[in-house]
């Protein structure tokens, strides 16, 4: 297995390679429900979602967080992640094409390690932010 490692010369302002995902569809939601064990009907049952006042089912928030996790682990080995948190800011509907991005906002030393703090987010194809968060990565 190849090891991904952020270059030691990472600087504030650097950006991570963008991760673009295919449009959210019902199959993705069903597969994520099965993989995660989150079978909340609002994500998989159109009738239930409509009774709840939504136009249709929509993505699990944790699916988008998982996409951000993929953004991070395509940049570094998962063992370098020291923290990872998000705040959900919008609903990801069927048909949304999610793009994950991140940028270095701080470089510091902690527990004898060089680390960087990242701001990370997901946006749909219309530029609407769906999740914002941060992560700390050991270099």
Automatic annotation (TrEMBL):
| Gene3D superfamilies recorded | Hotdog Thioesterase (3.10.129.10)
Quote the protein name from its UniProt record: MaoC family dehydratase
Tell me the lineage of the source organism: Bacteria, Pseudomonadati, Pseudomonadota, Betaproteobacteria, Burkholderiales
Residues of the MaoC-like domain: 24-117
